[in-house]
Design goal:
The protein is an alpha+beta fold. It is built from 9 helices and 19 strands. It folds into 2 domains: 209 residues, no CATH class; 125 residues, no CATH class. The N and C termini lie far apart (70 Å).
């Protein structure tokens, strides 16, 4: 089958770039890790047009800007936007043996139908954090503007000539063209597929860059707008410390051996062992907290643990229903979450380095 890139070259020759590219590159922001995207609706449209011999129906280049024509071809013809992108504050996964670090971002899947509403699902490592559906009148002005300008509004800007090509760039090894859709809103399209791969939106004067993992537009009425998962962000109630207990009784409460870091660590002695009440979607569960140093008077280390994946514990690390694989720790600032001895454990320390060190020191308490 004829290569899609060849068809695009035949219809709109590759843009070599004009103007002051040095200035453009200085103005462009660096982004996150790239991912090559497959050609979807744009490829189908290009092949259909070439096969039927109706190249005349393609928009003519405007002012020597075939980049906009190619981006328009890759945008599809649907009224509904289906988008998956990475966003939010990154978490860091640390291999406790090697020290290797991997940045993890949440993924957002969006179905946006201007007439019928919005569905947005956030996942962290495949685990649903929230899944919400909103009617057209419930969609915020910011969200509506953003998703409209990536869907039907994006195509309209490309068709009308309102969009401007800012220039070429390389965002985390992905060659792109930056296209300004409107003030404060830029889209980077791949120089290979011309599909959107990054979006840059200025908020309060600071640009926020998100990596687009997949992009398509589909027919009106075809979007699955009914949420199936949790109806909103997780309940942010976290574990609450209760009565002090003996360390020997911690294992009986948990149903397996509790984990600890010894009688003392980093100059802190084991100051208190307390029962925890841990909120969970299926009903509160019992956990245990070990405090090294006084929680009232200054820096300390706290090791919280439970036998189940309860939101009130995992939310201490900012995620819902997720704990990392054995041998790794998920970092959120000076907080580390891990699995140890079949328990979900969250460590809070004065700094990140100490949290990782304590994670490495954990071992079952045998009495």
């Amino acid at each position: 089958m004829t290569d899609v890139a060849e068809l695009l070259d035949a219809i709109a020759p590759a843009h070599e770039g004009t103007g002051d590219w040095s200035r453009v590159l200085r103005d462009a922001d660096a982004g996150r890790r790239p991912r090559r995207l497959p050609v979807r609706l744009g490829a189908v449209f290009a092949v259909a047009a070439a096969t039927a011999g109706i190249v005349a129906l393609w928009p003519a280049g405007r002012g020597g800007e075939p980049v906009l024509d190619r981006a328009l071809a890759a945008a599809g013809q649907g009224e509904v936007l289906h988008l998956v992108y990475e966003s939010g504050l990154p978490r860091t996964l640390v291999d406790l043996e090697t020290g290797e670090r991997t940045e993890i971002l949440a993924q957002h899947e969006v179905w946006f139908d201007p007439r019928n509403g919005l569905r947005e699902t956030e996942r962290f490592e495949g685990v649903v954090q929230f899944d919400v559906s909103l009617g057209p009148e419930e969609v915020s002005e910011h969200a509506g503007s953003l998703y409209m300008s990536l869907g039907a509004g994006y195509r309209e800007a490309l068709e009308s000539g309102r969009a401007d090509v800012l220039g070429e760039d390389v965002v985390e090894a992905t060659p792109v063209y930056w296209i300004r859709i409107e003030a404060g809103h830029d889209v980077a399209v791949s120089r290979e597929t011309y599909e959107p791969v990054f979006v840059r939106v200025s908020q309060a004067g600071a640009p926020a860059l998100d990596r687009i993992l997949s992009y398509e537009t589909v027919e009106a009425g075809s979007a699955p707008l009914d949420a199936e998962g949790p109806g909103g962000p997780p309940n942010e109630r976290v574990a609450v410390a209760g009565d002090e207990i003996e360390l020997d009784g911690a294992s009986a409460l948990l149903g397996r051996e509790a984990v600890w870091a010894g009688a003392s660590l980093h100059g802190f002695s084991l100051d208190a062992v307390r029962e925890l009440l841990v909120p969970s979607a299926g009903g509160d569960v019992r956990g245990v907290s070990l405090a090294y140093g006084s929680t009232q008077t200054g820096p300390h280390v706290e090791i919280s643990q439970a036998a189940s994946l309860a939101d009130g514990l995992t939310m201490l690390a900012g995620v819902r229903g997720y704990a990392p694989p054995e041998g790794t720790a998920l970092l959120a600032g000076p907080t580390a979450m891990l699995r140890s001895n079949g328990l979900v454990v969250v460590i809070h320390a004065p700094d990140e380095a100490m949290a990782v060190d304590v994670a490495r020191l954990l071992e079952p308490y045998s009495g």
